[in-house]
Amino acid sequence: MKLKKVKSPSPCMITQAIDIIGKKWVLLIMYQLLSGPKRFTELEAEMAISGRLLSERLKEMETEGIVTRHMFPEIPPRVEYELTPKGRAIEPVIDQIYSWSSDWLKQQKSE
């Protein structure tokens, strides 16, 4: 009897995705930005992340086309970060991760 091959996602594509969203803080930054544009200081305060690391992650996410940076010509300068459509597409994935962790991590604690 022959086993039927199941078509699965290319490991290369999964690896590429994990290289982007698997870095520490990236999914949490994306989660924070799902509610709308935020200033750097808002993100920094909400997540207790160092400014240096937040800046580094935002630059990487901007390079990947996940986040856009909007500068406003004000004094002092105001900068806001917002998810692009590519970045917003992660929302169902984050919802599923939340659902999985709600179901299984609670259960794990009670065992």
Automatic annotation (TrEMBL):
Gene3D superfamilies xref list: Winged helix-like DNA-binding domain superfamily/Winged helix DNA-binding domain
UniProt keyword Glycoprotein, yes or no: no
Keyword Transcription regulation: yes
Pfam families listed in its UniProt record: HxlR
Keywords: DNA-binding, Transcription, Transcription regulation
PANTHER family, per database record: HTH-TYPE TRANSCRIPTIONAL REGULATOR YODB, TRANSCRIPTIONAL REGULATOR, MARR FAMILY
Record's protein name: DNA-binding HxlR family transcriptional regulator
Organism: Paenibacillus xylanexedens
